[in-house]
Amino acid sequence: MENVMGLLRIKVKRGINLAIRDAVSSDPYIKLKTSVVKNNCNPEWNDELTLSISDPNIPIKLTVYDKDTFSGDDKMGDAEIDIKPYLASLRMGLQNLPTGCVVSRVQPTRQNCLADESSIVWENGKIIQYMCLRLNNVECGEVELQLDWIEVAGCKGVGTQDFEWREQSFRKRRPRE
Ligand SMILES: [Ca+2]
Ligand SMILES: [Ca+2]
């Protein structure tokens, strides 16, 4: 557990205008853990995935599939979640803000998969990031989700990551005495 910073909870809320991979619709699910929604290109998932995070520089990959019974499932696009802006907000160590207060905003760029501006918001004692991702490698489709962080006893947490990394690289570079 010493390399784990904590747990990231990804609540996948819904898909919007997803690709058609059957005759008239699809049965979309997100890779591995969300449930299948039958025959619907605007599914409401409201599912939660929890991942342990060790390296914030590794983006989280999300893939949408169409569940098929008699053949392999069809791909409906993929996207990456960049968690660095979210972790940076957690590291600010904010406390007791009013619910709904926007801590930070992330703009869509060529490097991230955001379909829209994403807000990082203080809500009921937690920092939550809301995002809508535009799916790649597909003709259409977006996925709405939110991130929140779970501190776990025995994990190193978000606060010291940069500092430790700098310390280590400094030590490596220092010439032998
Ligand atoms: Ca299909
Ligand atoms: Ca299908």
Automatic annotation (TrEMBL):
Localization of this protein: Cell membrane; Nucleus
GO cellular component, one term: plasma membrane
Coiled-coil regions listed: none
GO BP annotations listed: abscisic acid-activated signaling pathway
InterPro entries, per database record: C2_dom (IPR000008), C2_domain_sf (IPR035892), CAR1-11 (IPR044562)
GO molecular function annotations of the record: GTPase activator activity; lipid binding; metal ion binding
Secretion signal, residue range per the UniProt entry: none
CDD domains on file: C2_ArfGAP
Annotated ranges, domain C2: 1-97
Keywords: Abscisic acid signaling pathway, Calcium, Cell membrane, GTPase activation, Lipid-binding, Membrane, Metal-binding, Nucleus
Pfam family, one: C2
Predominant location: membrane
Family indicated by similarity: Belongs to the plant CAR protein family.
Name used for this protein in its record: Calcium-dependent lipid-binding family protein
Organism lineage: Eukaryota, Viridiplantae, Streptophyta, Embryophyta, Tracheophyta
